[in-house]
Methyltransferase domain-containing protein (Paraburkholderia aspalathi), 286 residues
Amino acid sequence: MDTTFPCPACNGESWLPVGTHYYWRAEHQANGNWYRDQYVRLRRRVLFEIWFPDADVVILSSRRCATCGLACYCPRPDSFDLEAKYRFLMEAKGVGTRDAAVEQDAARAAWVYETICAVQTNPFRVLDVGGGNGRLMLPFLARGAECYLVDYATWTHQGVQRLGSTLADVPQAMSFDVAICSHVLEHVAYPRRLLEEVHRILCDDGIVYVEVPLEEFRNNAWNPILAEPVTHISFFTAVTLRHLLLAVGYQTNLLEECVGTYEGQPLPVIRAVATKSNWLADPVNI
Ligand SMILES: [Zn+2]
């Protein structure tokens, strides 16, 4: 766990306090409030069996970046904590996702495809970063694109080639016209570093599609970590995403808040399409 860290989106050092959040071990055990909710119970088991194995109560302080508006909590899981989380979830239930629902994502796949093609009319080589089983790639595949993904999940749709678990597994010589980071940045320890790695493996003028949930993190009573703080660890605004993309060297073609879908359910999201450039924004002027 990190207790001292800069903003994982903009590297800013100035934080505003938001709230203090208490989680008791007894709450997900028999007769506890969260015992009957299997999804929450499994995440709370990560909190108490993997991240804080000696604690009966976990206390997290949430904060907001004064520069870009990203909200997160402290102590913050690092990449080792998150790897341990995914190993635990995969062992507990296979691939760590709500499997029955994920195949309902055809409408989302079509929506992502159309949004990307409005900017990059003929994507040939496409990489989905954290793409699960590759379901978002199916419209690209149907139109003859080469489709690749990196994810901890090991089963992929036929025709989608899995290159490994993370971007570190992508062969050095490979580059891509399009990279998709859909519902990924809110899960990772270092979202800025992830977008920097994506920048490196894109062709010149390649584009990245980024989508994150729009979750309001206001205070102790109104926030997305009431039930459990394990699923998402960073909470973005449109301003955060704009900062992040510009600072890493992308120019944004599209940035919008809208209602998308996820696993068949409506979900407010922030999404962006941005083109790789070699121009780095001055953070002061973003
Ligand atoms: Zn920030």
Remarks:
- The chain has a mean pLDDT of 91.
